[in-house]
């Protein structure tokens, strides 16, 4: 049986890590444009300023103080400004995707390229024209666009003026953005993802959150600045899920053939031992991610939601109609990212508010240079877990291995570790389809061309089949070159997953 005919092989990127051109074509600032570079040992920073001129700094996942505004600061490198410059290389890059045989390409739309301030009444035509050109270029090669509306993309104005997604006004701004692009590409795009990794959103970067519980001048990753309040995150994500459901409703009035999905980070979770506290602890931890897909796919908050709310002393605030909106306008498919599995240990749970990927290491698994466990069998487990639960089509829209690539004297890049990682994961995907009868739409490995790492801001943490000549400080020619994995993946696609060695 193997992979079905029409299976969508491709690749995935995000605008804030790939696109560049941050101040071109009328684009406005997003919060991601304020994020400095960093490393796994020295995290990225965001600077902010009070009305009286005093300044502070926070890290990813933290909030700025209420009344402050995010700022760019001289003397720092901001990787998103140029990223790996898809803005000026899109024709070349899409030609390379086509050469590999892509059937689908997952891209995200920069909200501030369409509405520079997020709350604008009129869309930026130059921004729309850029994506017109990108989509037309994809269609020229027969590549299906898979468009993500909101991928770690928070317009700076919406964060500083409205307090981000804690404010329900953002639902209307988001729907204006969504309607604009649904109408624009109603006959060109079939597959849509309304929100990226909704279960790991938090803080100022992704939700635009502000708080009064911030110590000035401290950095969240040093343990001095508190992360975003759990209640603020849960309330903000409720607003996002209402916005997603309303976008589904809107999309189906514009083109009933649209396929609407939402996306979560759903790498797997294991108990450390068979001790009941480890087993149930892992189960509870997993629920903190699945609560969101339960709402998005099933249309209602599950019975266990109240236990999560009680844990954080949180009371969900809803408005009349929210319950009916969520129930009526569920997503057609569940898109998810899978990179690794993690372990719940009752003695050191190290868990996150919304069921993200943090946890204890697994002694049975090897890890990437960034410490991410490599677990191909875990992907089959997660595919079965999700399909058993929802009985709706799945779409793996991120999977891959961040690694350090060596460019040889002749220019070749022999990324055998990446090939091995992907080969083993694809074998398990095939097992899930062939043996377990999981309904899977497609597979788009992450960072199909080298992009800036969202977590660390580095370039040396590379995922792509295509190398981009750029270092961690933005130095380089931006020249594109094919890695060994480029030719390997080309053959995988050409044989519909039958030839992996």
From TrEMBL:
GO biological process: carbohydrate catabolic process
Residues forming the catalytic site: 398 (nucleophile)
Recorded GO MF terms: beta-glucosidase activity
Domain of life where this protein originates: Bacteria
Annotated keywords: Glycosidase, Hydrolase
GO cellular component labels: cytosol
InterPro entries tied to this protein: GH (IPR017853), GH_1_N_CS (IPR033132), Glyco_hydro_1 (IPR001360), Glyco_hydro_1_AS (IPR018120)
Protein family membership: Belongs to the glycosyl hydrolase 1 family.
Name of the protein this chain belongs to: 6-phospho-beta-glucosidase
Gene source species: Paenibacillus odorifer
Origin organism lineage: Bacteria, Bacillati, Bacillota, Bacilli, Bacillales
């Amino acid at each position: 049986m193997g992979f079905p005919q029409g299976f969508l092989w491709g690749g995935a990127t995000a605008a804030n890590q790939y696109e560049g051109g941050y101040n071109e074509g009328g684009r406005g600032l997003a919060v991601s444009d304020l994020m400095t570079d960093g490393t796994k040992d020295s995290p990225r920073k965001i600077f902010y300023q009070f009305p009286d001129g005093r300044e502070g700094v926070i890290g990813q996942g933290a909030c700025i103080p209420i009344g402050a505004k995010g700022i760019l600061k001289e003397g720092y490198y901001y990787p998103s400004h140029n990223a790996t410059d898809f803005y000026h290389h899109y024709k070349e890059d899409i030609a390379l995707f086509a050469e590999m045989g892509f059937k689908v390409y997952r891209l995200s739309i920069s909200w501030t390229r369409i509405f520079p301030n997020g709350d604008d009444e009129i869309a930026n035509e130059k921004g729309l024209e850029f994506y017109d050109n990108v989509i037309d270029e994809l269609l020229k090669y027969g590549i299906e666009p898979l468009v993500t509306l909101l991928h770690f993309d928070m317009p700076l104005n919406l964060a500083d003026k409205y307090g981000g997604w804690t404010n329900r006004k953002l639902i209307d701004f988001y729907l204006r953005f969504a309607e604009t692009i649904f109408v624009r590409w109603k006959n060109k795009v079939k597959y849509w993802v309304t929100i990226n990794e909704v279960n790991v959103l938090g803080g100022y970067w992704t939700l635009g959150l502000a708080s009064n519980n911030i110590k000035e001048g401290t950095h969240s990753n040093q343990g001095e600045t508190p992360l975003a309040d759990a209640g603020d995150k849960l309330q903000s994500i409720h607003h996002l899920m209402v916005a997603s459901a309303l976008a589904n409703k809107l999309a189906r009035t514009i083109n009933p053939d649209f396929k609407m999905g939402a996306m979560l980070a759903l790498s797997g979770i294991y108990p450390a031992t068979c001790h009941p506290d480890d087993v149930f602890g892992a189960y509870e931890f997993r629920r903190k991610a699945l609560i969101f897909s339960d709402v998005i796919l099933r249309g209602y908050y599950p019975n266990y939601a109240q236990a999560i709310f009680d844990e954080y002393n949180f009371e969900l605030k809803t408005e009349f109609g929210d319950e009916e909106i969520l129930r009526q306008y569920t997503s057609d498919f569940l898109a998810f990212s899978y990179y690794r599995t993690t372990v719940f240990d009752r003695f050191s749970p190290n868990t996150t508010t919304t069921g993200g990927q943090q946890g204890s290491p697994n002694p049975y698994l090897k890890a990437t240079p960034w410490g991410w466990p490599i677990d191909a069998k875990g992907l089959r487990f997660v595919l079965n877990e999700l399909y058993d639960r929802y009985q709706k089509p799945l779409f793996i829209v991120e999977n891959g291995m961040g690694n350090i690539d060596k460019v040889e004297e002749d220019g070749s890049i022999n990324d055998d570790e990446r090939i091995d990682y992907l080969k083993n994961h694809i074998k398990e995907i095939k097992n899930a389809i062939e043996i377990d009868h999981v309904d899977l739409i497609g597979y788009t490995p992450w960072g199909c061309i080298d992009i800036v790492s969202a977590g660390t801001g580095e370039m040396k943490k590379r995922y792509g089949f295509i190398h981009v000549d750029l270092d961690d400080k933005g130095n380089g020619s931006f020249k594109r070159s094919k890695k060994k994995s480029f030719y390997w993946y080309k053959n995988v696609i050409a044989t519909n997953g039958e030839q992996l060695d």
